[in-house]
Amino acid sequence: MTGFEFRVIGRVQGVGFRHYVHQAAMRIGVTGWVRNESDGSVVGEAFGDEDALAELRAALESGPMWSRVDSTEVRAVAEPTPRPAAFEVRYNG
C-alpha cells in the first residue's frame, strides 16, 4: 500500500468537492480523508494500491461539474499506523 497527501486549489469549496472525492474514493477502494481549508483549498490523504491512487488522482484533477481545478499538489506519504479503515470527510471544528 502506498499513499499521498493532496491539496486541490481552485473553485473547490461550495461545489460538492469533498462529497465527490469521498464517493470516488469509496468506489475505487481508497482509504483516507478529505477536508476544506480556510484558504479555500481542499486537502486530504489517500492510501491504496498504485492503480487506485492513480484513478483517485485523476478524479481530483477533474473534480465535479461545478468545480474548477486550477492545480493539484500531491506528495507521497508513508502509510500511517494504524491504517485507515475507510475514507472520511472531515469538518473543521
Can you put this structure into words, describing what you see?
The chain is about 25% helix and about 40% strand. Helix 1 packs antiparallel against helix 2 (about 50-60). It has helices at about 15-30, 50-60; strands at about 1-10, 30-35, 40-50, 70-75, 85-90. A 5-stranded mixed sheet has the order 4-1-3-2-5, covered by helices on one side. It has a single domain, classed as Alpha-Beta Plaits (2-Layer Sandwich), CATH 3.30.70.100. The protein is α+β, with helices and mostly antiparallel strands and about 90 residues long. Strand 2 (about 30-35) and strand 3 (about 40-50) form a beta hairpin. It is globular, with a radius of gyration of 12 Å.
Question: Top keywords for this entry?
Answer:
5-stranded mixed β-sheet; 93 residues; alpha+beta
Distance between the termini: 30 Å
- Which strands sit side by side, in order, in the main sheet? 4-1-3-2-5
User: Count the helices. How many?
Assistant: 2
Chain-averaged pLDDT:
94
Q: Could you tell me the CATH topology label.
A: Alpha-Beta Plaits
